[in-house]
Amino acid sequence: MKHLIQQIILLIIYLVFIEFAQASAPNRRCYSFDTHHNLLFKKDGIYLQETVKDGHNKISYVSQSKVRLKGIENKGVRVISDYGNKILVLSNSKYYFIPKSLSKAKNYEITPLFNENEVSKIASNNFFLVSGNWYYVSYTSEGNLDKHKIPKFKENMEIIAAYHNGNLAKFYHWYFSKDIEDRFLLKSVDKVLLKDDNAVYIYDISKNKLKKIPHLTLSQTHFVESNYISYLYDDDTFYLIDRKNFTYTDITKKFNQQGKYNGFTKAEIYPSYYSNDSMDTKDGLIWLSIGDHFTPVKATYLNAYKDLYVYHNKVYANNRDLFDFIHHETAPSDPSYDGDKSIDISNVQNPSELHQISYSEFFDNQQLYVEESRRLEETEDPSAYRQLLIDTKGHIRIRDKQIFIDEQQLNTDKFHDTPIFLGSILDGKMQCSSFSNLGGNYFYFFTDGKKVYAYINPEENQKPIVLDNISPQNLKVNDFDTLKELQNICITTVKKSKSNIYGYF
Length: 505
Prior knowledge:
This protein is an alpha+beta fold. Helix 3 (166-175) runs antiparallel to helix 4 (178-186). The strands form 11 sheets. Strands 5-6-7-8 form a 4-stranded antiparallel β-sheet. A 4-stranded antiparallel β-sheet has the order 9-10-11-12, with no helix packed on it. The protein has a 4-stranded antiparallel β-sheet with strand order 13-14-15-16, with no helix packed on it. The chain is flat.
């Protein structure tokens, strides 16, 4: 008995290890999806509809559901704006918020915000100018309306940026319940960067306080958003905006100490996802974002993409690597230097278009390259190359009688005329998998006007299944209910097949 228990424990450990190894393998990722909300106006009322599609191809349906809204009538309803986590509508001369959450829309009554004749301006779906005063309006975690009158704010208000914790909500979605995600999404904005006729401010919503950012000339003020930090500056003042806490740091003196005196407004900032940011001052210098400041170097950009640097005929993909090399030239005895990290691009066919698409992959709009031992090598990795083609050419292409999905040509010998794409649906098995199959079965449906054809996971099976028992007449294109019906018919057809060559059901 003891030996049996030990075997079971070892088996469990082995299975956990295999699952971890698969999830961590190269070219694998977790299933993702895009969620969209819209309003349906029906005779019996207004419905909030949630549509979920595959985040990989942006086409394949995963699910679609709707709930009827309570507290608002379908009488001349007009959508004013669709922004963030709610939809603003006007009905019977009253403004209403409709939360983009099926659970909240189902459980809470939709209540009016303001009368139409009270509101003279609306900004970004949350800010309302009512009788000369600005209000910030949002939902509480309990689904109630929360109105804040913003103190001492001028009429000519403009929103520059907002701090969203939407990424945090997405993280919680994977590990906890949908309700927890809704609670975070209902109040996903904590601080907002604003300006009026006098100054630029940070508005702290929870504290209902405005904090003026000093020394900025409004007519010269620029704002550039990057991945982890943002930049706010005029000609003689430069701030770093921390996106985590929405605090600002004045680094003007650090610029001046390095000889930057001729103003910031002529410079161009280039945010980078895979490296740190950089700034071109148009005077032969590139300023590299290093830590909490910029450092100038006498380098150039490889091309118009501005994400690769050239220094003395060496090419660098990371500005920290370039900075370390230049520092090593001036202080060769520094023990912290761990070698030149320039990359060899001699194999690149089209360097004038070379740019970075991941931490180790590069593309010159002709060929995909992978960095191996500091050298770019051509690769024919089908998954990565196919993803590039999706991004640059689209997921589905139809030419004459030919169908291409992810640049994979399908067999269309049975088609009598030019294919018409009816839509795609995914059976929704959400798990980590490879690029070629994100953990579920993809169904793509086409018609030639006479018959309906289905491709199941077309990257692996290029021949269609003919759905003889359904007419293409009056079928709705890109309609979830239609595609769900076609999917069920397709599954039944495959199950009845003696060979069941697809073997997925």
